[in-house]
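Student:
Attend to each token:
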Amino acid sequence: MALHFLLERAGDARVGDVVVLGGAEAHHAASVRRVRVGEEVTVGDGRGVWLTGTVASVQPKEVQVEVVTRTETGEPRPRTVLVQALAKGDRDEMAVQAATELGVDEIVPWQAARSVSRWEGAKTAKGVARWETISREAAKQAHRAWLAVVAQPVSTKDLVRRAASSRMLVLEPTGATALTSVELDPADPRDIVLVVGPEGGISAEELAQLRDAGVESVRLGDTVLRTSTAGPVALALVNAALGRW
């Protein structure tokens, strides 16, 4: 499979044009992946444009690619959203990476009541930037035409407000309904929002607030999955239910 690279300006390119990779992408292409003149690669803008091209020249800080074909892919509908509670160590980052590979459209950091990790002040911008980097690299590896959006951190009150306009499912081991038995309509335009709690679980108060907002509690099975695992597993099931897999 051809190597894939990202270029924001790729959306303007047409067949026969030469697009130029610079900065980190050029370094990755030239020095890390060691692309060669004549090699076929793909370039995307992360917003649906997909270019197939041939490497025309390789320099340490600039790689030129001649465009051979151009296609455009519409944004998936319904969108899938992972609300991932902040977790200690790199567990939330593991969820971000895997969820991106599995095709999630948006990732929302959640400052849950029991989140050990706290994003405050300058740490918030740093955390969002870190998740964006992880998601971007995972999207390249997975050859995704659309990058996932990493949102700003939200509170439980924010989730309650969002529940009114989306199909929100909170992953809870004690939920009475199995996710595999939930009917998902591919024609329903509402976002499918999966809410994953932190290591210590979602508090009773938070569950009550979400339930009062009409959010459904669903379980994945008889075992309790880690916060880094639950979201990606749920996304896989949703992809299958929507006929995407």
Q: What stands out?
A: The chain has a mean pLDDT of 95.
